[in-house]
Structures are given as structure tokens and as C-alpha cells.
Design goal:
Blueprint (H helix, E strand, L loop, with lengths): L1 E6 L5 E7 L11 E3 L19 H9 L12 H10 L28 H7 L2 E8 L17 E5 L26 E6 L5 E5 L2 H4 L2 H5 L1
Parallel strand pairs: 1-3, 4-5
Antiparallel strand pairs: 1-2, 2-4, 5-6, 6-7
Length: about 210
């Protein structure tokens, strides 16, 4: 069985998509890497000063699509990629004002993962999701067969180690946890995502 992946955590999200074995000779592998706050010149194949040999090789051997106008924030950009629609549209709700910028994808959107599932691929995402953190809006509710990663922003990794963090100050002010799930099952909360975990999670995933 061939594997196709997408990658985000720290600022990456690795999504894995695999095609059925009987179709493997006709279907390509797909690898999509999403990196938050990555500048145009931060990779070697664009002439950057940072050595990125693995990314350079992927760029050389793969297909480079370099005319995508992203948003200045991660969630709208991820929503663009997952739905093919402007990120602002994911904030709309019927008979009401736009939701907050961090709301993520609405449940009725037809996502890239759902499209690939319908085309015969098995799908998975490994890393940062940040497109919905409530029941019915996790990656495994939006077309992915499996998921391992964090549901929200990586900056929450600093909360458990901060003397400034105050518990119970707000319902949303809770420690982030690494999560894991499979399609049709409720995702499980695993260990707290703190600074120590942030330094190792990319290695665990890749």
C-alpha cells in the first residue's frame, strides 16, 4: 500500500494519504507540507542561507505549486488548503455574525481529505490541526482516517511551564494535549503538550 502524506506540527501538519494496493500503479503518492511562518527564502531551493537538503530533494523530485496566496494567519490558510475556499468563508454562520478567527472549518465543508477519500485514498493527518477543537470538527470528522497531533496552536506548549498561567481563569484556558483518533471514534487526549513535548513531537511523527 502506498502512503501519501501532508505534514504540519510546531508549524507543521503532516497528513498521510495512502492509495489502495490494487490501484497503486495508477495513483500517485501525495505529500503536502504546511509550515507556519516559513518565509520564501527560508529554504535552500529558493536560495536561502539555511541548509534544507531534504526539502530541496522533495522540491526537485516532486511538483512545486508556488503561486498560492496565503493568509497572514495559520488557521485561515489551513482552511484555504482544506476547502479550496477563501479562509474568511469558514467563519460564516447562518443568520449570525462571523465566528471568531480561530473557529476553523464548518462541518458541512467538503474537504481535501474527503475528496481524496472519495477518489480511493486512505487519509491521515499528523501534526497541528487548528481547524476545529470540538466534537464533530476534529480531523477524523472532516475526512481523515487517522490523526495524531495537536488540535490548537503550538504556543500553548508554553502554558504548563509558565508561572503566569492561572487555572480556571477562562473555560478555554486549559493545557493543550496531544490527541489521537481514528475515523468513527472519539479522539483520545494523551499527554500534556508542554515545551518538552514540543521539542520531540516532530521527530516522533516523521
Amino acid at each position: 500500500m502506498k502512503i501519501i502524506c501532508l505534514l504540519p506540527i510546531l508549524g507543521f501538519a503532516l497528513t498521510s494519504l495512502s492509495v489502495a494496493a490494487e490501484r497503486s500503479s495508477r495513483r500517485p503518492n501525495i505529500v503536502i507540507i504546511v509550515a507556519d511562518d516559513l518565509g520564501w527564502g527560508d529554504v535552500g531551493y529558493h536560495g536561502g542561507d539555511i541548509a534544507t537538503p531534504n526539502l530541496d530533494r522533495l522540491a526537485k523530485e516532486g511538483v512545486r505549486l508556488e503561486n498560492w496566496h496565503v493568509c497572514p494567519l495559520c488557521s485561515p490558510t489551513r482552511a484555504d488548503l482544506m476547502t479550496g475556499r477563501y479562509g474568511i468563508r469558514t467563519r460564516l454562520q447562518e443568520d449570525g455574525p462571523p465566528r471568531g478567527i480561530w473557529y476553523g472549518i464548518t462541518r458541512y465543508e467538503y474537504t481535501l481529505a474527503e475528496m481524496l477519500t472519495d477518489a480511493g485514498y486512505a487519509t491521515g493527518i499528523f501534526g497541528k490541526w487548528h481547524l476545529g477543537d470540538t466534537e464533530g470538527r476534529f480531523p477524523t470528522d472532516q475526512g481523515f482516517d487517522e490523526w495524531y497531533g495537536i488540535p490548537r496552536s503550538s504556543d500553548r506548549a508554553f502554558w504548563p511551564n509558565s508561572d503566569l498561567f492561572v487555572e480556571n481563569v477562562h473555560p478555554g484556558a486549559v493545557f493543550a494535549r496531544v490527541m489521537s483518533g481514528k475515523r468513527g471514534q472519539k479522539p483520545k487526549e494523551l499527554e500534556v503538550y508542554d515545551r518538552a513535548k514540543r521539542t520531540t513531537i516532530d521527530r516522533e511523527i516523521t
